[in-house]
Write a structure and sequence with these properties.
378 residues, mainly alpha, binds zinc ion, two-stranded parallel ribbon, 4 strands
Length: 378
């Protein structure tokens, strides 16, 4: 966790515009829990002659299945489908395959957890550029900002929907948030459209997200950004438009991107935006977080559907979200195995291990949280 060892600026609540950097915030110094947890997890990887923390054959096989599903569903949708039912089934599969590329391949690679070799991680991270996102932007927004400051209002941009919704008790409530537990599910769907056409470009031009400033991209990163966006627009819109009327292209693009946006948002919101997760703020006097980093990560992250092999396989282990936030550079292929270690260590240190038994109970908890945050009392 080298990121936490950076020197603190004079005022940790203010970004320094003179230096292109993300906002700084320090955490409590007690490392008992983190040290014990790391020792236990390292012990697991030492067993059996030393397991690698990177992805193994299971991840490679999954990569092949997901990329094949993506390519085949796209080909059949554009060149073979003959009626509405076939088109709808194929675009659903295409949207789900695209989301799975994000969860399983690009997410691990963006955290440098897919492989031991840096260039393999780089190439696999480009799958995100291929499907309309930006691996450069994702690294800074997700792997750095979100992971470092998860659920800290004003720092974690993943819980900031602007006027559209209120995800944290420390955000201002607007009258129409009263209905956010109904309409935000649709907004989630459209977030992917915004991401593909506006958000990445906006962040690239602004050089950051929220109050965080990112280092300017290298020429290489800029080339990947432009080439990725161009490739995405060509396969998603231009090629279908050559063979089909524009309204059919927009119709299927619309359904595919809503499926993608819905899945992405829900899978990433369920572990954090529920009543079982904390939303701590920096101490008013010291400007620091009171809890140590690892305890903070544990308290703001809730697992779901740990016993479901289908959810675990499809969502890239993001249902083991506490494990992911504590060990982001370990491939998700190992999360089911280290989950019991994390749970036991939490209990041994008197920390709650909060989880939802199923995906649906997680969805219900998120619904209740949205409703609660939209109520006038809160
Ligand atoms: Zn992550």
């Amino acid at each position: 966790m080298t990121l936490r060892q950076e020197p603190s600026p004079p005022n940790p609540n203010q970004p320094n515009p003179a230096h292109r950097t993300i906002m700084k915030l320090e955490f409590g110094q007690d490392k008992d829990f983190e040290t014990d947890l790391r020792q236990r997890v390292n012990q697991y990887f030492k067993q059996g002659g030393g397991r690698s923390k990177a992805g193994d054959w299971r991840l490679h096989l999954k990569t092949a299945i997901i990329l094949t599903s993506f390519a085949v569903s796209y080909f059949l949708l554009v060149f073979v489908a003959e009626n509405l039912l076939q088109g709808l089934l194929l675009v659903l599969l295409l949207g789900l395959s695209t989301a799975c590329i994000g969860f399983n391949i690009a997410h691990d690679a963006g955290h440098k957890a897919y492989a031991k070799t840096p260039w393999v991680n780089k190439i696999m991270a480009w799958t995100m550029d291929l499907v309309g996102g930006s691996s450069y932007m994702w690294f800074w927004k997700h792997a750095v900002v979100h992971h470092r400051y998860v659920n800290i209002t004003g720092y974690d941009t993943d819980i900031d929907l602007g006027y559209l919704g209120r995800l944290s008790p420390h955000q201002k409530r607007l009258p129409f948030h009263r209905w956010q537990h109904f309409y935000l599910w649709f907004v989630y769907g459209f977030l992917a459209v915004h991401w593909e056409f506006v958000g990445d470009f906006q962040k690239m031009i602004m050089g950051g997200v929220g109050k965080h400033r990112f280092p300017r991209p290298t020429t290489h990163e800029l080339v990947v950004f432009v080439a990725g966006k161009a490739a995405f627009f060509i396969w998603a819109l231009l090629i279908p438009w050559i063979f089909h009327p524009w309204y059919a292209v927009l119709f299927y693009y619309g359904i595919g991107v809503l499926v993608l946006g819905g899945f992405l948002s829900i899978v990433f919101q369920l572990p954090h935006c529920v009543a079982e997760a904390d939303f701590p703020l920096p101490n008013r006097d010291t400007g620091r977080m009171e809890k140590p980093w690892a305890v903070h990560q544990s308290s703001v992250t809730v697992d779901y559907a740990r016993r479901s092999p289908i959810v675990s396989w499809l969502f890239g282990g993001l249902n083991f979200h506490k494990e992911h936030h504590l060990f982001p550079t370990i491939s998700h292929a190992h999360y089911p195995a280290i989950s019991s270690i994390v749970e036991q260590t939490c209990r041994d240190h008197g920390l709650a291990f909060r989880e939802h038994r199923s995906f649906w109970s997680g969805i219900a908890a998120h619904y209740r949280w949205l409703r609660k945050m939209g109520e006038p009392d809160h």
